[in-house]
Amino acid sequence: MTKSRLQPETQPETQPQTSPQVIAVASGKGGVGKTFFSLQLASHATKLGKRVLLMDADLGLANADVMLGISAPESIHQVLQGQSRLKDIIVDSGHGFDVLPGGSGLHELTALATAQQQLLLDEMSAISSDYDVVIIDTAAGISDNVLYFVSASESTLIVLTPDPTSLTDAYALIKVLSQQRDTDHFMVIINQADEREAQLVFRRLLSVADRYLNVHLELMGHLQRDPSVRNSIRSQSPFSEQFPTSLATALDAVLHNPRDTSRSSGLRFFWQHSLRNALNGEQADPATEMPHNMGGIR
Length: 298
Ligand SMILES: Nc1ncnc2c1ncn2[C@@H]1O[C@H](COP(=O)(O)OP(=O)(O)OP(=O)(O)O)[C@@H](O)[C@H]1O
Ligand SMILES: [Mg+2]
Description:
Blueprint (H helix, E strand, L loop, with lengths): L20 E6 L7 H14 L4 E6 L6 H5 L7 H5 L5 H4 L1 E2 L5 E4 L12 H15 L4 E6 L5 H9 L2 E6 L3 H17 L4 E7 L3 H18 L3 E8 L3 H8 L10 H11 L10 H15 L18
Parallel strand pairs: 1-5, 1-6, 2-4, 2-5, 6-7, 7-8
Antiparallel strand pairs: 3-4
Helix pairs in contact: 1-10, 5-11, 6-11, 7-8
């Protein structure tokens, strides 16, 4: 198997930019590799000379803090309580990028008072010029919080595996986002698949999406099942020189995907959009019914 090191670039690529590139990493089904890819994206962008913030928007236990082996004593909860400034809860990953711990405070996004809304907007505004790239690692599924974060981001990366339920759950997420949240462009990575299998899975997703939805799906790459991934996560050292070459190819494709200027006004847009949805009290319809031909791919 071909292995490669994710080499740092000699020339930083950072361009003067008015707003950070905000990428949400999402999936329908859990455990498909969102947090792993979020961490790799953060690390890869850092090596390209970008100033990177990884936002942990997963309320579960197996999150970025755990994979990095860092402790985050405070979260957005403290900010909403007026006890901390956002810039003070950001922690150093130890790998050149910053981490914003979501924690239980994210539940409060659905019930923010106007004063809290303004507070968060001001806080996010204050830090947005510190970053070129913001990566949001979301929870699995179609919860309101996931929909807020994804729909308000500039771009969305969907991670799925060849597992048939991963395919149908990814389709359900794409369907809800396109029909209810005005999101029509999705980058896709197929995890735990070789190239042939990844093409097969993507074609299956594409054929159903093309028939039933008005969306644009783009395959950014794949990553085969590899023991170095599991071992790196187990040992809380998530960055390895042993990862397959296809990982670096996929990460490059995501980070160099052309920016969507209609959605790229950065974190301020991100939060305003999230908060507007929250304040409007929008209820997500899971919309999980599947087309009849959405079977397994094997
Ligand atoms: N390419 C791979 N090869 C081998 N194991 C992998 C690969 N990708 C992911 N894994 C395994 O899958 C596990 C789940 O990955 P990860 O935590 O990134 O998924 P997730 O989508 O963030 O899960 P959750 O929905 O619970 O947040 C990892 O601990 C790792 O062991
Ligand atoms: Mg995760």
